[in-house]
Amino acid sequence: MNLEQFDGLIFDLDGTLVDTMPLHLSAWERAAGEFGFHYDADWLYSLGGVPSRKIARLIAEQQNISLDGDLVARVKNGHYQSQLLRAEAFPAMLSLLRQWSGVLPMAIGTGSARVNAERVLTNTGLSRYFPVVVTADEVTSHKPNPDTYLLAAEQLGLAPERCLVFEDTPIGRQAARAAGMACVMVVDGMPRFEVG
């Protein structure tokens, strides 16, 4: 696939560029034990890109239990942050960044909080590739809504339809499509260049 047909590249962070999803899942598992809710790894992975406080509210609704979503999210994020030094970029994605750095402008569009995204980008050395980073803190309507990707395109100064998104979850792909952007899925750290 010739990426030069696009004017810019926008990347999800967790599970797309960096192998952080196991860290998120481990943090959710610990929080489940502390707050007494059922832990479902597959379901939680499918919600990649959704902020933790919204996931906590979904858990309370689906399991018909009372949870303080903000408190659960804070505890979960504390467990996650304690593991961040273990996060590493996927080799194939790092190679792609190096190949296109300076050729096409690039941005991050993530459902993570800014503090988490910045730590991951700094710890992995990826921050130098991204002049634009849009996090859950900058939008009110998160993935699968298009707002994260639309704001990233706007901050890059690009038309949405001229941007290519890299995502690892169906929710992220839905957000990219809703923004009018083509999307490449990343599976196990490898881009699948069938654009959807």
From TrEMBL:
Q: Name one GO molecular function term.
A: hydrolase activity
**CDD domains noted in UniProt:** HAD_BPGM-like
Q: Which Pfam families match?
A: HAD_2 (PF13419)
Q: Look up the domain of life of the source.
A: Bacteria
Residues annotated as transmembrane: none
The entry's keywords: Hydrolase
Q: Which family does it belong to?
A: Belongs to the HAD-like hydrolase superfamily. CbbY/CbbZ/Gph/YieH family.
What is the recorded name of this protein?
Answer: Beta-phosphoglucomutase family hydrolase
Native species of this protein?
Zobellella aerophila
